[in-house]
């Protein structure tokens, strides 16, 4: 991000701490990922390509330092299906100045739900 763009961003988030902004940016990124890619056609043949495409797309979001996307589940050879939120296992690293937040999107069996949550903040 260019220095002048960074200053513009800061102006809109001046009422938030770096910690709050990191969590905000992470939530926006995970929400965008979930709602943009759920429903995408997937098979064994394009699983890894889709994982990399999701990562590359989300790296365009502000403050994304790193992201790792894993599509889990039993895809069968020659089977076509649609990506389901329950199939996403995402690790996201957001950096705002000296603050780093680690967020996760993962299906939680006990909740029967793909949960987005903060793992830790440094």
Automatic annotation (TrEMBL):
It is an enzyme of class 4 (lyase). InterPro entries: DHN_aldolase_MptD, MptD_sf, MtpD_C. One of its GO terms (biological process) is tetrahydromethanopterin biosynthetic process. Its EC number is 4.1.2.25. Keywords: Lyase. Pathway: Cofactor biosynthesis; 5,6,7,8-tetrahydromethanopterin biosynthesis. GO terms for molecular function: dihydroneopterin aldolase activity. SUPFAM superfamilies: MK0786-like. It comes from the Archaea. Substrate binds at residues 25, 116. It catalyses: 7,8-dihydroneopterin = 6-hydroxymethyl-7,8-dihydropterin + glycolaldehyde. Homotetramer. Belongs to the archaeal dihydroneopterin aldolase family. Catalyzes the conversion of 7,8-dihydroneopterin (H2Neo) to 6-hydroxymethyl-7,8-dihydropterin (6-HMD). This is Dihydroneopterin aldolase. It comes from Methanothermococcus okinawensis. The lineage of its organism: Archaea, Methanobacteriati, Methanobacteriota, Methanomada group, Methanococci.
């Amino acid at each position: 991000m260019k220095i002048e763009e960074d200053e513009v961003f800061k102006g809109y988030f001046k009422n938030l701490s770096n910690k709050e902004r990191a969590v905000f940016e992470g939530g926006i990124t995970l929400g965008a990922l979930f709602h943009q890619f759920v429903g995408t056609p997937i098979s064994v043949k394009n699983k890894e390509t889709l994982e990399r495409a999701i990562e590359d797309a989300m790296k365009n979001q502000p403050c994304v330092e790193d992201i790792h996307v894993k599509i889990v589940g039993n895809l069968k050879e020659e089977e076509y299906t649609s990506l389901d939120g329950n199939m996403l296992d995402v690790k996201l690293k957001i950096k705002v100045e000296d603050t780093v937040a680690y967020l996760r999107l993962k299906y939680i069996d006990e909740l029967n739900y793909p949960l987005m949550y903060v793992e830790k903040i440094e």
